[in-house]
Amino acid sequence: MNGFSRIGLAAVGSLVLASAAFAQGAPPTPEQRAAQQVKTRQAVFDLVSFTFGPAGASLRPGGAPLDPAAATKIAQRLQVLATFIPEVFIPDTHAITGLTTKARDAIWTNKSDFDQKASDFGAAAAALETAAKGGDAGEIKKAVQGVGKGCAGCHDNFRDK
Ligand code: HEC
Q1: What is the dihedral of CA 126, 127, 128, 129, to 10 degrees?
Q2: How many A from CA of 61 to the centre of ligand 1?
Q3: Can you tell me the mean pLDDT for 80-85?
Q4: CA distance to 50, 76, 120, per residue, from 127 (Å)
Q5: CB 128 within 8 Å of CB 87
Q6: Does residue 16 have a pLDDT over 50?
């Protein structure tokens, strides 16, 4: 067997394994679909948290201040991630039981307010990019605090403790 078809077979093999969950060819149940949607949402927040990490650390006592280049990168990434938030919550999963999620029902009963919080968060990240361009450490710190308020402003209303 030549190298190419071996690779091809290996790829097919892993595809078969990956779709084992749907081996009967049945479409996912509403519960399975919702569990996947929850995973996607949580992955977005894991990336948000990973990205914000050094910025959050800069606010702690003795934390290293955030230099403008790092602040710019964080601000740009958070602006992109913010745009995912309203979208990944379009599927309304609040009536599905047995999900491991901290998302509150209010997200769907008050989606426009939730979306506004996501947009405010994106705006706070944009303000951080502006502050980073200015290069003033005090302004960068204030803008990082603003982004942190964006996290808390949403969690306080829409995420279980
Ligand atoms: C517009 C609303 C909103 C904003 C803004 C937001 N979050 Fe969240 N966050 C949520 C919700 C809702 C959940 C719960 C998701 C779930 O469990 O299904 C969550 C979950 C998380 C989680 C847990 C993810 C997991 O794997 O379960 C972390 C960590 C997190 N957020 C960090 C942050 C940080 C840090 C920020 C700001 C830099 C932020 N979030 C901004 C709404 C928000």
Answers
A1: 50
A2: 24
A3: 98
A4: 19, 10, 10
A5: no
A6: no
Q: Residues lining ligand 1, judged by CB closer than 6 Å?
A: 38, 41-42, 45-46, 48-49, 52, 85, 101-103, 114, 117-118, 121, 147, 150-151, 154-155, 158-159
Residue reference for tokens 């097919």: 12
Q: Tell me the pLDDT of the chain averaged across its residues.
A: 91
> Which whole-number Å values give the CA distances from 88 to 7, 49, 50, 127, 134, in the listed order?
34, 16, 18, 24, 33
Do residues 61 and 69 lie in contact, with contact meaning Cβ atoms separated by under 8 Å?
no
Instruction: Report pLDDT digits (tens) over 23-60.
Output: 668 999 999 999 999 999 999 999 999 999 999 999 99
Residue 96 pLDDT grade (very low, low, confident, very high; cuts 50, 70, 90): very high
Catalogue the long-range contacts made by 62-66 (C-beta closer than 8 Å, 24 or more residues apart): 65/137, 65/140, 65/141, 66/140, 66/141, 66/144
